[in-house]
Specification:
Layout: E1 17-25, H1 31-41, H2 47-59, H3 75-80, E2 87-92, E3 96-102, H4 110-117, E4 122-128, H5 135-146, E5 151-157, H6 166-177, E6 187-192, H7 216-222, E7 235-237, E8 240-242, E9 254-258, E10 263-265, E11 269-273, E12 277-286, E13 289-291, E14 293-295, E15 299-304, E16 315-317, E17 324-335, E18 346-351, E19 354-367, E20 374-376, E21 386-399, H8 406-409, E22 410-415, E23 421-427
Parallel strand pairs: 1-3, 1-4, 4-5, 5-6
Antiparallel strand pairs: 2-3, 7-16, 8-9, 9-15, 10-14, 11-12, 11-16, 12-13, 12-15, 17-21, 17-23, 18-19, 18-22, 19-20, 19-21, 22-23
Amino acid sequence: MNATSPSSSFTEGTETQLMRFTTAGSVDDGKSTLIGRLLHDSKSIFEDQWESLERSADLAGGTEVNLANLTDGLRSEREQGITIDVAYRYFATPRRKFIIADTPGHVQYTRNMVTGASTANMALVLIDARNGVVEQSKRHAYISSLLGIPHMTVCINKMDLVDYSEERFREIREEFYEFIPRLDIRDISFIPISALKGDNVVTESANMPWYHGPTLLSHLEDVYIASDWNLKDFRMPVQYVIRPHTDEHHDYRGFAGQITGGTIKVGDPVGVLPNGARSKVKSILTHEGPADEAFCPQSVSIELENNIDISRGDTLTGLDNLPYTTQDHDAHLCWMHEQGLQLGKKYLIKHGSRTTKVVFKELVNQIDVHTLEEIDNPTDIKLNDIGRVKFKSMAPLVYDAYKKNRYVGGFVIIDEASNDTVAAGMLRSPEKPQPVPDFTDYAI
């Protein structure tokens, strides 16, 4: 069975495209209520869940169900009325499947926000119509941009509390437009909503006849995300070498992994980094069987024509637009542990399928999460801090800059002694020109 092309896999047959999005914004802007409204109005709540919410409302002496309780699942969250941890929820419509990450708004939970946003296609930035664009709105929008989220939707919420004013909506939109030049987001939309009342969330609002755009759900279903993957430059970190050792397949040697960029066809030339070997693709095996072509984000096994020494942690790549291969790195880092970063200490880096030791050499700057100013030569990087660092790895890493391919340019840092994940990072292009790998010694 042949693999379909990237575009047809999202439009033909029964295949339904998966979209991930995250909420962002200031405390009490209504993020959890919005997710609850989406789940309720799209008929994605089980009957027993709704009955539980009704019982909670009765016990609290209220008359209305608190939709935020669908995502604020921790007891401490319900008692404080805030989101602390990342809550993941799933729902689906006939047109698309969704995974929602409801992330906290407080500065002290920046690491949780980064975790929830790291794989998102879209960031929903909520703004209270009464307060306008505030510090935390800008901070979360900036972090979403830093994390490479390609789409952003600014939901101006609580329009019911400003009498559904078109003038107020336009004021906030213009205020946010002044901030847009600081963001690296290619697609930004604005929708006026009331999460509490349901206006423009799933159904069109009769209270805002001046708004002629889509509802939030309609926008989520229609936004084009197929190009969020880098479909040009082939990349596949090798996760496993397959040697069946059976009579039928005694000569088979496949390299299994997830394609994190580009497409690959039988007969295409490929390079192997960091060892510099090259060969041609002999066969491609997907979970559906043999295929002539595969594309990201498929998981496949690739057989090459030559018997080359390849192991877990190596990367199969196309021969054009080659990735960087180096031991000296420049990256943005979000620190996630109570014990701060220590220069000179050995850590482990998990990058794709490769794990190796690293040593941090320099703190270049730190981003003030309140003002978004860059502080040069900071003295430390501690819990919830975001900064730019330079470090050296024991073995070379094969990567593209995070802005070019977030699935190849991202990594996590692990404390070697405790095995705790202490940071997540985004690789930048090296400051110095990198030598081009020479594949000529390995003839095809």
